Every structure is written in C-alpha cells, then in structure tokens.
Amino acid sequence: MTTTSRQWVVAARPIGRALSEDDFRLETAPVPPVGEGQVKLRTDWLSFDPAQKSWMENIAGYVDPVEIGGLMPGAGLGEVVESHHPGFAPGDLVTGPIGWREMAVLDGAKLAAVPQGVPPTAALGVLGGTGKTAYLAFVEVGKPKPGDTVVISGAAGATGSIVGQIAKLSGCRVIGIAGGADKCAWLVDELGFDGAIDYKAGKIRGGLKQHCPNGIDVFFDNVGGDILNDAMARLAVGARVVICGGISRYNADPRDPEQMPPGPRNYFNVVFTGATIQGFLLPRYEAQFAVANRRLAEWVRSGALRYREDIQAGFENAPQTLMRLFDGRNFGKQLLRVGSA
Amino acid sequence: MTTTSRQWVVAARPIGRALSEDDFRLETAPVPPVGEGQVKLRTDWLSFDPAQKSWMENIAGYVDPVEIGGLMPGAGLGEVVESHHPGFAPGDLVTGPIGWREMAVLDGAKLAAVPQGVPPTAALGVLGGTGKTAYLAFVEVGKPKPGDTVVISGAAGATGSIVGQIAKLSGCRVIGIAGGADKCAWLVDELGFDGAIDYKAGKIRGGLKQHCPNGIDVFFDNVGGDILNDAMARLAVGARVVICGGISRYNADPRDPEQMPPGPRNYFNVVFTGATIQGFLLPRYEAQFAVANRRLAEWVRSGALRYREDIQAGFENAPQTLMRLFDGRNFGKQLLRVGSA
Asked: Are residues A133 and A274 in the same domain?
C-alpha cells in the first residue's frame, strides 16, 4: 500500500506583481518510505513569512532554488508518526522545513523538538525564525543603548511586535508604526509600547516629530518606501537603521531597475548624523541561534515576552493565508492549522 | 589711516538650484585693528570644497550660520603681516578659516602653521580638511581589509584621489569612477589605481561588473545618484558603503521632498549582503585629526601620496572657481591664487 499526501507546488514565479492563487497548484504525491536517520511526520501547522514570496521568485539566490512544479517551501510543525532517527519517537512534536504538505519524510537532522513549557505553536513564531530574527537583528545590528528612542515599522507584525518588547527590555523608548487603530491600541495597551503611529491615518512625519523630539536612535524597518524615507528625515546623531524587511517592495521586479520603487530620498542624512544603515539576513547569524533561543524561551516562560497569533484553518487555504501578509490583513504571527489538528 | 580689504559676501542662498555669480557680491570693508591674541594676515590662497554651497544654503545646521550679506566662508592660506599672538610672527605662513577676503584679522587659536618640508598649498588639500576627510572616512567608516576591492566615485577629485592611494597603501584593489579619459588615465598611470571607469562614456554597470568580479567590498561615494545605485547592485557580502559626498544632489532643495532626487533603488541589497551604509562628517572625528595629519604628512614627504592641484588665479574669480566643482571642470584640488602671491 502506498501512502499519499496532498502538497502545494509552485506553479509560477510571482516576479514584479502580487501573489495570486494561480501561482500554486494542489497535487497528490506518494510519501516515500522512511530511510535510516529519517522521520515521517503529519503536519499540524504551517508558518508564513513574507520571505516565502522571494523564495518563489528565486532571484536573490540566498536559499536553495525553488523549481517550478516543486514543493512550496515553508516552516511547519508536525507530529512524528514513524521514526528511524534516535532523537525522535512517535508522538513527538517537531518543527522544521516541512514545506506545504500534509505528510512528509525528512532527515531527523533538519528537525527540532518543540520546547517544553510553552505552547507548541510558539516554536514557529517567537521561538522560531521570527523570534530569532527579531532578537538578533535588533541586538546585533540595532545595537540598542538604554534611553534610546526606537521606532519600528510593521510594528504589529510577528517580527516587529517582538522587537518592540525586546527594546523595552533593553531600556529603550519604543514607538511603533502600524496600520489601524486596533493594532496601535494593542501595541500600547498590551505590549507596553510608549506610542504608536497609525500609518493608515496618514501623518507619519507628524507622528514621528511628536513622538521623537530628540530624533530616532534605532529605526527597525520591515516596510521600506515612504515610511523609511520619513524616518531617515528624523535620525539622531549616530543612529542605526536596521533593514530587516521591505513589505512595500515585494511586488516589484528587482531585475528591472526602472520598475523598482525609489530608495529613500533622505538617505544623505546619514552624512549629517553619522548614521548607519545595515541589512539583516538570519542565516548569517547562525552562530548565535542557541543564545537567542535560550533568551527568547526564558522571556516567553516568564511572561516578559507576549505574542499574538493569526490563525487560519484548512490545508487548501495555504496560498490565501500567505497572501494575507502582503496587504496587512494578518494581525500577529500568521499560522495555518492543517486539517483538524 | 584705515586699511581696507576686498571681500566676497553671500548675496543669495542657492537652494534648489545651481550656484550663480549673482549669489555673491564683491565689497570693500575696513580691516579692524589687531587685538590681543590676534593675527593680521594677507591671503595668498583660497581653498574650495563642495560643502561651501551647503554652508551658503544654511540648511543642514552643522556649521555656524552664514548670513545674507555676511562674509563667504572658506579655508585659506596667508602670510602673517602683524601678530599679537605668541605663536606667530610676521612672514609666517598659516592656514585657517579666513573666508573670501584679501586681508583678515583672526584669533591666532584658529590658525595653524604650514608644515615644513612640503609645498605650502599642500596644507589646504592633502594635509588639510581634504586629506583628513579622505583618511578618516576611508579608515574609520570604510574599514578596509587587505585584498578588499575598493570602488571610489569622484575618484579624480581632491578627496577621491587621496582615498584611492590610501586604499592601495592598505593592500586593496582600487577602481576609480571619474569623468573623462584624461582623468581615468591619470588614476591608473600616475596614482596606481588598478582600473578606472569613465562615467561620461556610460557603461558604469558594465565597468563595475568587469572590474569587480567578486563584488565591491568598500564603495566610497562622493557622487550619489545613478552611480551609487549601480554600485549597490554589486556589493559583496559584508560590504561597507561610505557616504562622503553627493555632488549629483547638491542642486536639489532638501526642504522639498518631491524635488529631491530618488535614493538608491537597490538599497535593499544590504539585506542580502549584510552590508553597511554609513555617512561621514569630518568634525565628528576631531579626536583623530592629529594622527591623520601625521600619517598624511609622512606619506606626502616620502612621495607615497601624490596629489594634483587645479589652480585658478585672481580674487575676483572666486565665485567662478567654486562653480567649477559642480560640473566636474576641476581636475585635482581646486585652489585660487589671490593677487600676485
């Protein structure tokens, strides 16, 4: 008897345009036998991140190429159903690069056990790549000092909301930029941000002026575009600008320079302020993953670090769930519950 | 008897447009008596720098405000004719913030003796603010490592040509971008650059691809605009982009965001490379001036550091001489010989 699994494959590369359901195709594929050192698992949760669109475009070249017709990659959480790896036993919950499929056979070396004492899905967000990105980008590139004024774009997103709380733990004043009154209220009332600016209400420049009378010491950018440019106009002397994401740019075609949106007009302010703009990409900081994971887990267990999940359901909705990230529909870490798990 | 001196004053602020002769007015003013601690000098040379246009605009706020009708500021070299300061005697050659006037009375504390063993005008260029900018911006912000590929825009300019030679002394491969075959030939044949790209012949991107097969480790920018954007497309992992100047932007009005030229579209490449973009402003590095001056003087005396001067003549030509910097007419450090000195 051959076991089969449903899986989503990449049908087209969404270069220079928004994602569409037609970029994905639902297929059924056989599940291979479990080899030595391998584990078979049933997928319970899928995790979503804007970078997945870049992987489909296969331009930047910083991950394994995604082929047309190949499995859509992505992190997930599953339950072990069969194991030929000494580290895992049936019933264990594990995370790893499962991809968009309901059942998978993976090398055990690529999997991590879900930590004890926290809700399992935390392993996909605050204790997964999202949390490590927030911690390492903010600490290693943002170089916070107590008393700094920190401004975060995409502040109610999975990464931004963690960055803001770590900034508070670091003794900083924290201002978030987010879309909508509900997200702004959550940042201030629930997460303890010192202020929030609703970009959908306009007036980003005025809001930055009001909330940052002495300028911005750390600007943590997940958005790009006008928000980045406005922030560049208010940098303090010696400011650090962390380029972590650019959600406003993800539908432009990087192969066509004319089509790309302009960079920040105000970049030249780095001369007057001596400021630094630096990019962050998680894989470069692998040597610090263990430290980041330990600290994040402690903060989650103690309640010092809070997070919000945006939970969708049904494996067939995976493409639509990814698309939520690109128009700000998600509120918190975007997850998909697969099947009835 | 009252001594008088001709002087150029600022007649208008050249904001959002090119400099014009009408922005200056030639006047005659009395020379005040020499007070305690002061020195009277006769100006022999004036030194020119693109930042002088910014001073006239009085926007950035990083120098003393320049008033309409006030003396045009600028560095110069003069001969002491009367001294009430113990450090200077008649006949001494000194440099300092003389401004555009033929005779001046200044506090001795603001003056520096011209060093021995080098041509006096070196004190205005390679041993003045130009040389210190080149050394400190390249070393402190560019952080060169031996084997790095260094690309310099405005490479035949006063700052760029010194940066390139210091980069060679640092064990780097050096590619210059300059306007015209004569400037490019000078960089390679006289200064020892490993290659040069003539931006007037177009093909900057192709030139960078050819000369930097492994990417750019340090990009030292004096220009901005398309050249900066093209360089951002070829950054190596861990690259440092030094923003030292932006000659392509100096005629735009920073108060009008819509009028400013776009920033580098390719800025997001800092994410994929982990690169850093940082600005440089000389006054912030004052603590290192003595070290920089000593090293530059040693290299000039030994012949390791060469420079070229673009010498104009006649005090009445000061405005036209400054304007040469903004269309690339100058070839080397721009100086004006005042009177018959």
From this structure: yes
Q: Answer whether residue B144 shows pLDDT above 90.
A: yes
Mean pLDDT, residues B69-98: 96
> CA A93 to CA A81: how far, in whole Å?
10
ipTM computed for the complex: 0.84
Given a contact cutoff of 8 angstroms between Cβ atoms, the answer to whether A92 and A273 are in contact is no
Cα distance from B259 to chain A (closest Cα, Å)? 9
Distance CA A98, CA A39 (A): 11
Q: How far is B110 from chain A (nearest CA, A)?
A: 23
Do A259 and A225 have their domain in common?
yes
Helix ranges, A58-171 (H):
129-136, 158-169
Q: Is the pTM of this model over 0.90?
A: no
* Rounded CA separation A5/A40 (Å): 12
The minimal CB distance from A270 to the residues B62, B275, B279 is found for B279
| pLDDT of residue B251 exceeding 60 | yes
- Is residue B295 situated within a structural domain? no
Instruction: Assess if residue A77 is contained within a domain.
Output: yes
pLDDT in tens, B159-217: 999 999 999 999 999 999 999 999 999 999 999 999 999 999 988 999 999 999 999 99
Q: Give the pLDDT of residue B63.
A: 59
**Considering the domain boundaries, does residue A295 fall inside one?**
no
Contacts of B223 in chain A (CB under 8 A): none
- The range of the structural domain enclosing residue A147 comes to 129-285
Name every residue in B having a CB less than 8 A away from some CB of A: 60-62, 224, 229, 233, 243-246, 249, 254, 257, 260-281, 284
CB contact under 8 A, B264 and A267: yes
CB pairs A-B closer than 8 Å:
107
Return the structure tokens found at B238: 């861990």
Of B243, B262, B272, the CB nearest to A62: B272
Give the domain CATH number at A91. Answer: 3.90.180.10
Q: Same domain for A133 and A120?
A: no
Count of structural domains, chain B: 2
Q: What is the pLDDT of residue B341?
A: 46
